[in-house]
Amino acid sequence: MHNLIFLTDLAGANLDPYVRFNEAQLFHARNPKPGLFIAESPKVIERAIRAGYRPASLLVEEKVLDRDLADLDHEMAINQTKGLGKTPIYVANSKLLRQLSGYNLLRGALSAMYRIERPDLASFLATMPTDHPRIAVLENVVNPANIGAIFRSAAALGIDGVIVTTDSADPLYRRASRVAMGTVFQVPWTYVDAKVWQAKGIGLLHQYGYQTAAMALRHNTVSIDDPQLDKVDKLAIILGSEGPGLREKTIAKSDFTIKIPMATGVDSLNVAAASALAFWELGNQKAK
């Protein structure tokens, strides 16, 4: 039996995650425990459940209620031993939901979900494959849409894990997970404090046997299709901010500086587009 709560307005405090909380408030909603995030659309919610996230509540459009609950119950039963059980399921008609500014409700469902604790950098690296691992590091990538697009490319093109500095946008922001089509729940990832990354991040990657390839325009760059890169046993591909790019210290400490060959008169690509080309050339998918 589902815990269905039919809404006549959006005033209740239990609806704050959907109606009144911004991304930062969601992130800190359960301090000191990890907070909440909003998963948008049944497909994204299903992928989150499959990755071990639990829904705190759902907000479902009335006209698609039966369809969405059947799909989500099935996913919960497979991955978390039981269905939705006592999870509050708020049900609203289309007219009421149109009051939610900025939400893409055309696919029917939203879920406020519990975040999970992320491992520290050393613990994360210890979980990576031992055979030819390829990971990405996102340094100060602040646009959530770019974060989502990078994760989607990472999932598709053989990147084994992603490290995100804390001065980047959060991969679980609603826009990021939507652009990623839920692949933020498919690719292993963790945060690293931006100051820790600058102080010793590359050194720790080196301790775990990784060589680092910074994507930047410099006089000593090598092309992403250079054969020596494929011969590297463990490779970390570092991508930087959309405007200024990687920090000078990051570039200086990296083993390689790599570039994408381009036509005369064009300096660079958007970081999301650049990541797709780099992951295709350097990831593990191409070899399969």
Question: Biggest sheet, strands in spatial order?
Answer: 8-7-6-11-9-12-10
Q: How helical, in percent, are the residues?
A: 25-40%
CATH superfamily of the largest domain: SPOUT methyltransferase, trefoil knot domain
Number of strands: 12
Number of domains: 2
Would you list the SSEs in sequence order as H and E?
EHHEHEHEHEHEHEHEHEEHEHEH
Radius of gyration from the alpha-carbon trace, in angstroms = 21 Å
Amino- and carboxy-terminal Cα gap: 45 Å
Oligomer: single chain
List low-confidence stretches.
none
Average pLDDT rating: 88
Indicate the overall shape. elongated
- Per DSSP, what share of the residues sits in E-state strands of 2 or more residues? 15-25%
Under CATH at level 1, the class of the largest domain stands as Alpha Beta
CATH architecture identity of the largest domain: 3-Layer(aba) Sandwich
Please give the count of helices.
12
Largest sheet properties? 7 strands, parallel
The name of the CATH topology of the largest domain is Alpha/beta knot
Q: Which structural class is indicated by helix and strand composition?
A: alpha/beta
